[in-house]
Amino acid sequence: MYRSRIKGCGHFLPERVIKNIDLLEFMETSDEWIQERTGIEERRWIDPLSGENTSTMGAKAAERAMKAAGVSKEEIDFIIFATLSPDMYFPGGGVRVQDILGMPTIGALDVRNQCSGFVYALSVADQFIKTGMYQNILVIGSENHSGGLEKSTRGRGVTVIFGDGAGAVVLSRSEDDSRGLLSTHLHAEGAHAEHLSLLAPNTGKWVDRLIKENNPEDTSYYPYMNGQFVFKHAVVRFSEVINEALQANGLSSSDIDLLIPHQANLRIAQFIQRKFGLNDDQVYNNIMRYGNTTAASIPIALSEAVQEGRVKNDDIIIMAAFGSGFTWASAIFRW
Ligand code: UT7
Fold it and tell me: Is 323 in the pocket of ligand 1 (CB under 6 A)?
């Protein structure tokens, strides 16, 4: 069995900055409400005229990750692409990235696990590397939320939270067995699927949409979140899955050098920080600048943390995520 490690990371964010007060153009809200409840100050939204989409952003992040890893596109064996906002209903974004980057006919797999998507994707990639099947895998998380949000007061509970962007890593076979990805831990509870969901389009509804006049009362084409219900589950599951990663490796919270939580809400990250007795240097947060970018949030945060020199050799790094599904997951590294 081989061990895998992250050889390089990259991220891409659209240039267009949407500050909280810019949202007043579409809805009744306030900078105070958004900052107090979520910690978000601004987010990036794609300029609709730019031609940017989930796949193009994913491809740019992937190029940067390959450059940082010193791995050429010819050396990549496989692509795993995580998103909840694909450019098309099908096919998924993985094949589009492969085409945009002009890569050979390697396989491309899409992961549909929303906020946990990147950690699930990392876990799948790890299995391919452990068995020796592949040596270098591109793992990408990318989201174009702004194209699908309900930009009105009715949708404000969801719309103010989400931002666009992409992050990617090259996961490679490690030459040093003592360092790399130690373990991943994956969970789901489908009983709560509809508490954070987008019901349409689906194979029952797309025909409806063609034959019926568009009904403005039909909110099923917009994301829905039962915020407080999700919040209560998130704090419990984040804690459980971080503990699970530590216990599986005989470690305790005092061993954590950096926790990279999925950027769902700064209040959730602060709750977890207090619970594990971590100081500010031990938790990476950038939700203030980018909002919640779902499958992209962990790889963007990791890429920034690496650029800022906050990830050093031999550090214990934990990534943890919770979101729609519900699904939750963690990955723990000795860097
Ligand atoms: O990434 C996946 C995982 N996601 C999460 O973990 C998110 C978990 N949930 C949350 O972060 C929080 O529940 C939210 C930030 C989404 C919402 O905060 P909340 O404190 O739970 O607010 P609420 O939904 O209970 O709404 C409270 C009030 C309501 O008004 P009334 O009914 O009390 O008069 C809302 O209509 O705030 C109102 N409200 C807003 N007001 C101004 C909702 N959205 C807004 C808004 N601006 N954007």
Answer: yes
